[in-house]
Amino acid sequence: MAPERESTRERSPAGATAATRPRARLDQPRPPRRRLLPEWDPEAFGRLSERIARFLGTGRFIVWMTIVIIAWVLWNIFAPSDLRFDNYPFIFLTLMLSLQASYAAPLILLAQNRQDDRDKVNLEQDRKQNERSIADTEYLTREIASLRIGLGEVATRDWIRSELQDIVKELEGRQDGHVVFPAERSTRRDVDDR
Hints:
Blueprint: H1 2-11, H2 42-56, H3 59-78, H4 91-152, H5 157-176, H6 182-193
Helix pairs in contact: 2-4
């Protein structure tokens, strides 16, 4: 029995730093705690509220609601008195419609809030896409401008043709004995360009 006591002493911490409750390990998740309120998945609840709100906004809901109300009123007017459950002022019908409205309004608002959140995300994505498009457009504009500047320094087909014509005339003039000086050729080209 003596060895067992020693092993229990080794396990339990002693002294001023000894904790009365077990220490939580940081490398492991906490065990789930019991809660007094029920838990639900907010996304599942949001999807359900959107489905209900979508149904409440349809003509099918209005038709079914109208049929139920008409059947309710006709039953409570023409049924035998011992089978009627809501007499003339139809207080129970009013209570049921109020209950339906009290649940419908928050569900519709929840669905609208979720749609607003999605719209904000979409708007932010559209804004970022527009910024990228503007940046790409500005880049392409700069590239086109640099190409135009570069093309201004490149020999065009018309300029090469005029140079070749001048050289041909100069060669023909040499064959005829008439020499054309380069200065005359440049002034002739300037006159032709105008």
